[in-house]
Amino acid sequence: MKNLTDSFVSLGHWPSAGSFGFNTDILATNPINLSVVLGVLIFFGKGVLNDLLDNRKQRILSTIRNSEELRRGAVEQLERARARLRKVEMGADEYRMNGYSEIEREKVNLINATSYSLEQLENYKNETLHFEQQRAINQVRQQVFQQALQGALGTLNSCLNSELHFRTISANIGILGAMEEITD
């Protein structure tokens, strides 16, 4: 490798009298070399560069078109979702209103049923009170009647002797006999 490098270095020292060689002066050779390289690149690379730029441009335009289509699809989906949301909200409002009216109906029905039950209980209470009053009155009447009967029997037993008893029985027999003759 050292021999190869030495051969290039030795070429730089050849006399430049009509021969071909390398110029090792950096300041003189750089702009020329760059302009030659750029010229060759532009001449030969122009088509490739145009193709690359066109391909890139087509990919960018394709990406933009795809993005626009996706955006349109997303906007359509958003509109459909908004329409469904409005429909669901209206349905929810309807259910809410129906629910509130159903609750109010149930509340009124419950109040009416409770009021009816309270009236029935009040009627049962009044009937029970009336029945208990009648029963108490009947018990008092029975007790008064029994006491009066016992008092009358006690009075009769104390006032009646056997002769008075005999006369009362005879008088009653006479009344029954007279009634029998009248019916014949």
UniProtKB/TrEMBL annotation:
<dbReference type="GO" id="GO:0015986">
    <property type="term" value="P:proton motive force-driven ATP synthesis"/>
</dbReference>
<feature type="coiled-coil region">
    <location>
        <begin position="64"/>
        <end position="98"/>
    </location>
</feature>
<comment type="function">
    <text>F(1)F(0) ATP synthase produces ATP from ADP in the presence of a proton or sodium gradient. F-type ATPases consist of two structural domains, F(1) containing the extramembraneous catalytic core and F(0) containing the membrane proton channel, linked together by a central stalk and a peripheral stalk. During catalysis, ATP synthesis in the catalytic domain of F(1) is coupled via a rotary mechanism of the central stalk subunits to proton translocation.</text>
</comment>
<keyword id="KW-1133">Transmembrane helix</keyword>
<keyword id="KW-0934">Plastid</keyword>
<keyword id="KW-0406">Ion transport</keyword>
<keyword id="KW-0150">Chloroplast</keyword>
<dbReference type="GO" id="GO:0045259">
    <property type="term" value="C:proton-transporting ATP synthase complex"/>
</dbReference>
<feature type="transmembrane region" description="Helical">
    <location>
        <begin position="32"/>
        <end position="49"/>
    </location>
</feature>
<protein>
    <submittedName>
        <fullName>ATP synthase CF0 B subunit subunit I</fullName>
    </submittedName>
</protein>
<dbReference type="Pfam" id="PF00430">
    <property type="entry name" value="ATP-synt_B"/>
</dbReference>
<comment type="similarity">
    <text>Belongs to the ATPase B chain family.</text>
</comment>
<keyword id="KW-0813">Transport</keyword>
<keyword id="KW-0793">Thylakoid</keyword>
<keyword id="KW-0066">ATP synthesis</keyword>
<keyword id="KW-0812">Transmembrane</keyword>
<keyword id="KW-0375">Hydrogen ion transport</keyword>
<dbReference type="GO" id="GO:0015078">
    <property type="term" value="F:proton transmembrane transporter activity"/>
</dbReference>
<keyword id="KW-0175">Coiled coil</keyword>
<keyword id="KW-0138">CF(0)</keyword>
<keyword id="KW-0472">Membrane</keyword>
<dbReference type="InterPro" id="IPR002146">
    <property type="entry name" value="ATP_synth_b/b'su_bac/chlpt"/>
</dbReference>
